[in-house]
Amino acid sequence: MTQGKAMSPATSIESHQESKFHERYHLFVFSFLAVLLQLIPNLLGGYGYFIDEWYYMACARRLAFGYVDHPPLAPVLLGGVMWFAGSSLVAIRILPALAGGAIVFLTGTMAREFGGKSLAQRVAALCAMISPGILVACGFFSVNAFEILFWVLCSYLFLLVLKTGDPARWVIFGLIFGIGLQNKHTMVLLGLGLAVGMLLTPARKHFSQREFWFGAAVAFLIILPNLIWQVMNGWPSLEFYANATLYKNLDTPPLKVFLGQIILQNPCAFPVCVSGVVYLLFSKGGERFRAIGWAFVALLILMLVSQTSRPDRITGVYPIIFAAGGVGLETFIRNRRKQWLKPALLVFLLAGGLLLAPIALPVLPPDVLATYCEAVGVVPEIERGKTSPLPQWFADRFDWDSFVSTVVDIYSRLPAEDKKRAVIFAPSYGHAGALEYYGPGLPRVISNHNSYYLWCAGNANAEVLLAIGANPADLRTVYAQVDSVGIIRGTYGMSWRNDMRVHLGKTPTVPLNDVWSRVKHYE
Fold it and tell me: Is the whole-model pTM more than 0.85?
């Protein structure tokens, strides 16, 4: 029998590099597909602008070190996009789509760092790509897409710290964490979870390393400008978060919270999540990474105890669980030599992605989508008093054109003298932002909602007020004459935006500035 030639070291290195390139190639493909999944529907219309996008564009035109409901990073990014590419639907959604692609790539990369081979990386990347929570967050411009990306970047760095023991990575971690805080304050939840995971495992040794505290100092210095802004403005974000908890979010039983987590990450990915938790907490291969497993458990318990109706609060921690789960399932299949399970697993995940894609991507006509959502039982009410046949992340993209055209029509019918003195009051940042964007020729717009309240403080006086959705009894405390002049109709929008009365207030009895502090609406 002829004996094969031994592979030379150079050939071995070349083969290893080719294998790594092959794995990375597949991750790039998954990432590219994730970006296309977002951009193609938006090129076809995407149902229109989401309510928060009007507000973010308004913030981008008023750059500051802080806003009532979020730090400044997202408006800075959007301001750059608007300066370079304009404010079309596709233009403002490019960055969230790219964030989605990066999340998918990093998820597969984390599987490789756990020791996973090709299957583990594909499973992890595919789970991230079909996650309704990630798809929804990356489907329009908001802080949420970037928050998930920052959570994943920090998770990846934390994984490398646990794997290599290199404390220098804490400085980079602090840098990314601080930038993430400048995007959304709820980054602190990830920090809390990781701290619990470290305290419960030998990873607690990192608390005694100076690099860890230097990284913490870097994060603090990055968020400091926003903290100073908070102090100067009376800590408005704390008031906003408190009001959202009291008046906006629904109390949700723990079992429903848990089911919401499963649905938001795709039920077909649930076995991967279970595999990830088992791998991290109980397997020998995951021993070095126990802190990650306990961090996830701590965050999940926090969700269950808080009974929040917002299942997306910890979406950013799932990619690293997908990565660990991919490794666990790959090990299971390899040990039992069930090769047929490899394609079966990928097909199963793809089927789950296709099943729930219509509730995460704007691909169906709205009437068909309403029927589909009812059939699969996914029409969540995540905020008090806000209902629609469609999920809120879609419903809040409808009826903005008709809203603005109705206001324009009502304004056009006012007497010429009233037009000259008129100011429009909008009931939310979305209505105000839409009027500012769509309504050239309309008068100045004011609102008492979130940062609009601060922007209009001291500049709210109006001799003639065209008030949308305001209580006429409240208007009569400021204006001697209050008349109903129209009504806002809707189709698939959220219920609270439909059948809004429009009133005209004239002959002020007190300056609106004098009562402005009493109408503040942080929520």
Answer: yes
